[in-house]
Amino acid sequence: MAKKKLTKGAWTKNDLQLLKKLFANNATTEVSAKLGRPNEAVKKKASRLGLRKTKKYMKSLGRS
């Protein structure tokens, strides 16, 4: 079974815009799938950019 090839390396301007748009209100796994990047890479980049999930999103997961 072949896995889908994930993007590695530099983040494009479009990748960063999409990450900033989607990260706060979507599951990280969904964002990583849309970007075609590993889940851990998305988490690290979001952290470095200071991006956080919204309180509303966290509450929808049962977290506060």
What's the topology here?
Elements: H1 13-22, H2 28-35, H3 39-48, H4 55-60
Helix pairs in contact: 2-3
Attribute tags:
single chain; 64 residues; mainly alpha; 4 helices; elongated
Notes on the protein architecture:
The structure is a single chain. This protein has four helices and no strands. The model has no long low-confidence stretch (mean pLDDT 90). By secondary structure, it is mostly helical. The chain has one domain (13-60). The termini are far apart.
Q: How many strands, what sense, and barrel or not for the largest sheet?
A: none
Strand content: under 5%
In percent, how helical is the residue content? 40-55%
Structural class: mainly alpha
Distance between the termini: 39 Å
Low-confidence segments, given as residue ranges, are none
Q: Taking Cα atoms only, what radius of gyration do you get, to the nearest Å?
A: 12 Å
Envelope shape: elongated
Per DSSP, the total helix count is 4
Number of strands: 0
Indicate the mean pLDDT: 90
Number of domains: 1
Return the string of H and E elements: HHHH
In short:
With 64 residues, the chain is mostly helical. It has helices at 13-22, 28-35, 39-48, 55-60. The chain contains 4 helices and no strands.
